[in-house]
Amino acid sequence: MVLFICWENIAFSQIHYVVQGNLSEDFDGKKVCLVLLEEDNLISDSTVIIDGKFSFKGELLQSCWVAVRIDGLNGIFLVLEDGTIRISIDNNHVKCEGTLTNDTFQKYWQEYQALNQSILENYKRLDSLNVYGTERRELIKLLHDQEVEKKKNFVKEVVHDNLDNIIPAFWLRLFQELITVDELKVMLSKACLELKTNRFIQKLESVQQGCFYVDAELEKLDGTKINLSHFVGKGNYLLINIWASWCGACIAKFPEMNLIGEKYYDCGLRILTISIDRDRENWRKTLQRLKPPGKQMLANYSFVNTYGINKIPALMLVSPEGVLIRKNFSITELERIINNERINHRK
Question: Are residues 337 and 238 in the same domain?
Answer without folding.
Answer: yes
